[in-house]
Amino acid sequence: MTKREQRLHALTQAIIAYLEAHSDAVDGVDNVLKTLSHMKLTGTQPRDTRPRATRHDAVLQCALDNMTSPALQGISHSLNAARNDLVWREDEAQFYPPGADLGDGYRQCNLHALLVGPDAAAFHHADFCLGVFMLGPRTLYRDHRHAAPELYLNLSARSGWRFDTRAWQDYPAGSLIWNPSNAPHATRVYDEPFLSVFAWLNDISTPCQVIPRDDWAEIELALANA
Ligand SMILES: [Fe+2]
User: Fold this and answer.
1) Ligand 1 center–CA 179 separation, angstroms
2) Secondary structure (3-state) at 158
3) Ligand 1 centroid to 3 CA: how many Å?
């Protein structure tokens, strides 16, 4: 393996090790691990090997620097090491139908990088994704749903989540969240950027759908003024 392959492999293995140690935390962890266990996680995709700057590199660095939870040390170490081996991309609403009302916060600052997926930096899979996802500070990622069942591993110290119409709840670093297929969810990011590992189990090509709620303006104003 090249050094680059070793770093991407180490990050993937650190994520798997964390999920294995927390397989009872939420539904879905077992299924994600099962898919990964059936994959040949050796070698890496030859393309996309050049590190590329994004307009959010400073925010990403801040999010990485904020990963201080001892439980996440393995992921933090390997993610910092592999940061420039990953291909960071902005979602310019390409996962949504045209005109989706995602709001300015999401559009202004989001990044993701795939370790496993159809066009991933590391390992190929046609209908499964494993990657890292970042949102800028004071962002409401508005309520949405998608066919793909989704697992989040929160890497940042505090993030707010709303599932369907239930009350908002804060989640700490190391927490896991399982969104079953088409289950509505929203995320709010406070004054530090949001960083997570995410997995989409299947149906990854089906477009996401924004679900209108009447409190978005109020939440976005509160985040902006916090
Ligand atoms: Fe989602």
Assistant:
1) 7
2) strand
3) 32
Residues whose CB falls within 8 Å of the CB of residue 105, separated by 6 or more in sequence, listed in order: 135, 136, 138, 139, 140, 141, 189, 220, 223
Each residue's pLDDT, cut to its tens digit, for the chain (226 residues) gives 889 889 999 999 999 999 999 999 999 999 999 999 998 877 666 555 566 789 999 999 999 999 999 999 999 999 999 999 998 999 888 889 988 999 999 999 999 999 999 888 788 899 999 999 999 999 999 999 999 999 999 999 999 999 999 999 999 999 999 999 999 999 999 999 999 999 999 999 999 999 999 999 999 999 999 8
C-alpha 146 to ligand 1 mean position (Å): 7
Of the candidates 178, 186, 147, 153, the residue with the CA atom closest to the CA atom of residue 31:
178
Adjacent-strand bridge partners of 171: 159
Q: Which domains does the chain have, with CATH numbers?
A: 3-225 (2.60.120.10)
